């Protein structure tokens, strides 16, 4: 568990642009996992779950609600992008969330994040927009887009 958290936090630091303040601290991740109904997934460069000596290059963090699981964070280290690893993580999340009883995945992202293309290609569709939901370090306010994905079984 501690080793997994180390691996997850390594990707967290590499993947998220500090200008947007979207990365979570280790404490936030630990608290979420302790709170329960929160799950993580790790992926190594070859797409498998990393063994003890292998670093993770991607992760998801998600929280199960009533029949729905929310993708809280998805990150892939920059040098391992555009190889389908995020898609691989979304497929695994969809499978495992469904085994936990979810019929739908939900997520929220800042408008303009290039991840939108990945989400739409995967099958997510927009269900809402929250005006000026995010506030960045430079004071800029950006809308949040909410998306859903119906899990196919
Ligand atoms: C968003 C993010 C997770 C995508 O990770 P990724 O592993 O690069 O995603 P994928 O490879 O699965 O798909 C992304 C792109 O790679 C392309 N791709 C997939 N397999 C490929 C391959 N074998 N060769 C080349 N390109 C490929 C996909 O078509 C897609 O291309 P496009 O976006 O240009 O259309 C990553 O960019 C990231 O960590 N961003 C910062 C954090 C963030 O914003 N997270 C989301 C909000 S929480």
CATH domain class name: Alpha Beta
Count, helices: 4
Tell me the series of helices and strands, N- to C-terminal: HHEEEHEHEE
Estimate the global geometry from the Cα principal axes.
Answer: globular
Bound molecules: coenzyme A
Helix and strand content put the structural class at alpha+beta
Query: Strand percentage, roughly?
Result: 25-35%
Q: At CATH's second level, what is the architecture?
A: 3-Layer(aba) Sandwich
**Helical proportion?**
25-40%
Description:
The structure is a single chain. This protein has four helices and six strands, in the order ααβββαβαββ. The protein is α+β, with helices and mostly antiparallel strands. The chain has one domain: Aminopeptidase (3-Layer(aba) Sandwich). The chain has a six-stranded mixed sheet, with helices on both faces. Strand 2 (58-64) and strand 3 (68-76) form a beta hairpin. It is globular and about 45 Å long. The two termini are 30 Å apart. The mean pLDDT is 95. It binds coenzyme A. Coenzyme A is lined by residues 15-16, 73-76, 81-87, 109, 113, 115, 117-118.
Can you lay out the helices and strands and say which pair or pack?
Blueprint: H1 2-15, H2 26-35, E1 38-43, E2 58-64, E3 68-76, H3 85-99, E4 104-110, H4 115-122, E5 125-135, E6 141-150
Parallel strand pairs: 3-4
Antiparallel strand pairs: 1-2, 2-3, 4-6, 5-6
Coenzyme A binds at residues 15-16, 73-76, 81-87, 109, 113, 115, 117-118.
Please name the defining characteristics of this protein:
single chain; alpha+beta; Aminopeptidase; six-stranded mixed beta sheet; 31% helix; binds coenzyme A
């Amino acid at each position: 568990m501690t080793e997994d958290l180390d691996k997850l936090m390594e990707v967290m630091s590499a993947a998220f642009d500090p200008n947007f303040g979207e990365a979570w601290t280790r404490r936030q991740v630990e608290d979420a996992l302790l709170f329960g109904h929160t799950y993580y997934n790790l992926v190594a460069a070859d797409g498998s779950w990393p063994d003890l000596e292998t670093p993770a290059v991607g992760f998801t963090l998600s929280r199960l609600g009533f029949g729905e699981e929310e993708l809280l964070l998805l990150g892939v280290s920059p040098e391992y992008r555009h190889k389908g690893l995020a898609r691989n993580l979304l497929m695994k999340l969809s499978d495992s969330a469904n085994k936990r009883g979810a019929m739908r995945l939900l997520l929220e992202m800042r408008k303009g994040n290039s991840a939108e293309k990945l989400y739409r290609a995967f099958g997510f569709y927009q269900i809402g927009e929250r005006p000026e939901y995010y506030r960045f370090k430079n004071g800029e306010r950006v809308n949040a887009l909410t998306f859903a994905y119906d899990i196919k079984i």
